[in-house]
Design brief:
Layout (H helix, E strand, L loop, with lengths): L8 H13 L2 H8 L3 H15 L4 E4 L2 E4 L1 H23 L9 E6 L1 H18 L4 E6 L2 H8 L5 E5 L8 E16 L15 E4 L10 H8 L6 E5 L2 H10 L4 E4 L7 E4 L7 E9 L6 H14 L1
Parallel strand pairs: 3-4, 3-5, 7-8
Antiparallel strand pairs: 1-2, 5-11, 6-9, 6-10, 6-11
Helix pairs in contact: 1-2, 1-4, 2-3, 5-9
């Protein structure tokens, strides 16, 4: 398909996204560019390849015959380019933006520490910290994100690699001077819970475990922002749950006899990248931070 060896790889990424999504706006959102930049890139490719590439219709842009006949070659070029980039990674020299997905609770407790470690090792790189979820997982599988950090998931595509990097524990807590003195007494108080994509957005497993102990506990308020739950705890009689690493002297923890709320963190990426120098470097930093 390529009539010139000078076509920029980034333009080819725009071409494949346009082929998949058939919408300038959708491509702009997917690649985090402006619609104007996407249109300009497509126009340059049209001129360079001497083909209309995409024909506007009432249902969006349809690829030309030229694109249909040759798009697989573009995918092959991008796949080969990615393999070259993976094998040449050097954290001290890279100036790319490293895109990392993780749950809100992870960013709350480890975000600044992780940034410090990454920046020390890769001083010229930029970093983008985003929320983990189904869309993030799909982005990684499409090659649009570098790595995810989340709780181990059983039901994931075979092409998503997961490696255990550490463990943590969820604790039930209140403010330090809360009137309740046992987990049983907490049944009389409201529960505020943080709803985190990729963790408990389908079901509150910790609450289910407490209910299995015979405790009459129900969620009074849920929030996607952990700061809201923390404020309710510190300014009233709510109780909540958080990572054990986040407990301080202002908090009171309630032991749970016979209930293990420990879970495993994993780092995930496209399976084709699991042995890459970039992935090995990143995994090493995460393990160091969590050790």
């Amino acid at each position: 398909m390529l009539k010139s060896p000078l076509i920029d790889v980034q333009r080819l990424r725009v071409l494949t996204k346009m082929y998949e999504l058939r919408s300038v706006k959708a491509v702009a959102i997917a690649l985090q560019r402006s619609p104007g930049m996407v249109s300009k890139t497509i126009s340059k490719l049209k001129e360079q390849l001497a083909d209309p590439l995409f024909v506007p219709t009432k249902n969006g842009f349809e690829p030309s015959l030229y694109v249909e006949q040759n798009i697989r070659h573009v995918y092959q070029i991008l796949e080969s380019y990615e393999k070259i980039q993976i094998s040449q990674f050097d954290p001290e020299l890279t100036d790319e933006t490293i895109l990392i997905y993780a749950p809100a609770l992870f960013w709350e407790h480890f975000g600044s520490r992780l940034y410090d470690l990454l920046k020390q090792a890769a001083p010229n790189a930029k970093f983008s910290f985003r929320m983990w979820g189904a869309e993030a997982r799909d982005a990684i599988l499409r090659g649009e994100g570098h790595v995810g950090i989340h709780i181990y998931e059983e039901d994931v595509p075979q092409s998503l690699y997961q490696e255990k990097i550490g463990s943590d524990k969820i604790v039930v807590y209140t403010r330090h001077d809360h009137p309740a003195s046992s987990i049983e007494e907490l049944q009389d108080y409201p529960l505020a819970i943080t709803r985190t994509s990729g963790w408990n957005d389908q079901r509150y497993q910790v609450v289910e475990r407490l209910q299995a102990m015979g405790l009459d506990i129900d969620v009074s308020v849920e929030s996607e922002y952990s700061g809201v739950c923390e404020e309710l705890v510190m300014q009233g009689d709510h109780f909540a749950m958080k990572l054990g690493r986040g407990i301080g002297p202002q908090h009171k923890v309630f032991p749970l006899k016979g209930v293990d709320l420990q879970f495993d963190y994993v780092v995930s990426c496209r399976r084709s990248r699991k042995d890459s120098p970039a992935m090995q470097w990143f995994t090493g930093i995460i393990k160091e931070m969590l050790s």
